[in-house]
Design brief:
492 residues, alpha/beta, TIM Barrel, two-stranded parallel sheet, 41% helix, globular, binds 6-O-phosphono-beta-D-glucopyranose, glycosidase, GH, Glyco_hydro_1, hydrolase
């Protein structure tokens, strides 16, 4: 009860405020330090404006494209190869995070920096040493790292040899990688996430699962099979953490997209419920340690047959996570129709919600959906939650005097923080909040630089031109005050 009284005040003491990134969107230096080529190094920039579509996803790569990119790289632009040069500028960037008062910084480790092909017996020392330096720099300022082991990339060799997570072989290779990370950084990293947004694996089968979609006959079958392999790999790493580093806390993650029913019609309500089940299927397995019964019907209806080894169920039961983390950007609308396609686990919502405004990239803005999501997830798992991503991708203007007046971003984040605070007052345990792209970075979905999320502006365009100078946006000063007041001063 004391805890509840504490919660009623709003953000608890020690709440982890900060920002989030991923290796392949910030580091650059794609061929330095012994790093191998990774899947994200093959995301070629396709000018979205040329197609007239704002969200021109570069998520999926075919076998033909991969062959061409490997043979003729000079013909294409691969923005994730250059990132924002965090590899060389991490000290400057961390100093800026510290100036904002960050308590936590979410980053990921590039698998291909540690195991260049994924197949080596021994890790690449230069890659390990790079992250040591980053963690030491964070420690200088008292910033806790929150580390994602796999954020939308893997060594390209594993795609060529195994077609990524389609193969069970990946389980052992990932466990080896996870064990190396836990052993090496157990005294420096307390918070871990095994896989970023595992629920997006089917929508972005190459980015999420390293699968060349044209090589698989039945995408649903192979997609869910790949997810099963990731579940087992993740659970094995959780089990390894208990043994190697019992003090760390290790979580799972989904892109939380709440689906609302289009109308009060019971059939629409049922459709929304099913869409939400499909989205929560992932933490259902990882937090509860077993496949939920509703998936039996779903798999049967869709002719999906998950092949399991005899110990898999035991591994899942023993490898339950400590916390559930989410990214939160939008909500969807579900409607029961003959031709209703699955609205969960995708960035494209077929039906628009007339009550919500859209971002410049047509993503519905829905702070209340964050509160609803947190309430539902906490109710379901009774585990601490972490909002590991949330933010607004927008075009920013750098004025002549090097200022960025991003009041729209402040407005967006403020509303989401208020929603999160209300959820905390409703009784939900939230460990922390890391805004996505706290420093401008390469977009995951579109490989654009111009889709900016940061509090810190990075002078670089979509083509990779620019000084790479960092500038504080108006939101930088605002977020600094939010952190200093532990979420009390939101500048309303
Ligand atoms: C999340 C990913 O889905 O959304 C991030 O984990 C990504 O990697 C973020 O950058 C925003 O998406 P986008 O496509 O705007 O970069």
């Amino acid at each position: 009860m004391i805890y509840m009284k504490e919660l009623m005040k709003g953000f608890p003491e020690g709440f982890l405020w900060g920002g989030a990134t991923a290796a392949n969107q910030i580091e650059g230096a794609f061929d330095e330090g012994g790093k191998g080529l990774s899947t994200s190094d093959m995301a070629a920039f396709k000018d979205p404006y040329a197609t007239g579509k704002v969200d021109n996803f570069t998520f999926n790569v075919t076998s033909k494209e991969l062959k061409e990119y490997l043979a003729n790289p000079e013909k294409y632009k691969f923005p994730k190869r250059w990132g924002i040069d965090f590899y060389h500028r991490y000290k400057e960037d961390i100093a800026l995070f510290a100036e904002m008062g960050f308590k936590v910084f979410r980053l990921s480790i590039s698998w291909a920096r540690i195991f260049p092909t994924g197949l080596e017996d021994e890790p690449n020392e230069e890659g390990l040493a790079f992250y040591d330096k980053v963690f030491d720099e964070l420690a200088k300022y008292g910033i806790e790292p929150l580390v994602t082991m796999s954020h939308y990339e893997m060594p390209i060799t594993l795609v060529q040899k195994y077609n990524g997570w389609q193969s069970r072989e990946l389980i052992g290779l990932f466990e080896k990688y996870g064990r190396v990370l836990l052993n090496r950084y157990k005294d420096k990293v307390k918070y871990w996430i095994t896989f970023n947004e595992m629920n997006m694996s089917l929508h972005s089968i190459y980015t999420g699962a390293g699968i060349l979609g044209d090589l698989v006959e039945n995408k649903m079958q192979e997609g869910y099979q790949a997810v099963h392999h990731q579940f087992v790999a993740s659970a094995l790493v959780v089990k390894a953490a208990r043994e190697i580093a019992p003090n760390v806390r290790i979580g799972c993650m989904i892109n939380q997209i709440e689906s609302y029913a289009k109308t009060t019609k019971p059939e629409d309500q049922l459709q929304a419920l099913k869409a939400n089940q499909l989205n929560m299927f992932y933490p259902d397995v990882q937090a509860r340690g077993e496949y939920p019964s509703y998936m039996t019907r779903f798999f049967a209806d869709n002719n999906i047959n998950i092949k399991m080894d005899k110990d898999d169920e035991k591994i899942l039961a023993e490898g339950k996570v400590d916390f559930v983390s989410i990214s939160y950007y939008m909500s969807h609308v579900a409607e029961a129709r003959e031709d209703a396609t699955d609205v969960a686990c995708t960035f494209d919502s077929a039906i628009k919600n007339e009550h919500l405004e859209l971002t410049e990239w047509d993503w519905p803005i829905d702070p209340t959906g964050l509160r609803i999501s947190l309430l539902k997830l906490y109710d379901r798992y009774q585990l601490p939650l972490f909002v590991a991503e949330n933010g607004l991708g927008a075009k920013d203007v750098l004025t002549e005097d090097k200022k960025i007046h991003d009041l729209y971003r402040i407005d967006y984040i403020r509303k989401h923080i208020i929603a999160m605070k209300e959820a905390i007052k409703d009784g939900v345990e939230v460990m922390g909040y890391t805004t996505w792209g706290c420093i401008d970075l390469i977009s995951c979905g579109t490989s654009q630089m111009s889709k900016r999320y940061g509090f810190i502006y990075v002078d670089q365009d979509d083509e990779g031109n620019g000084s790479l100078e960092r500038y504080r946006k108006d939101s930088f000063y605002w977020y600094k005050e939010v952190i200093a007041s532990n979420g009390e001063n939101l500048g309303e």
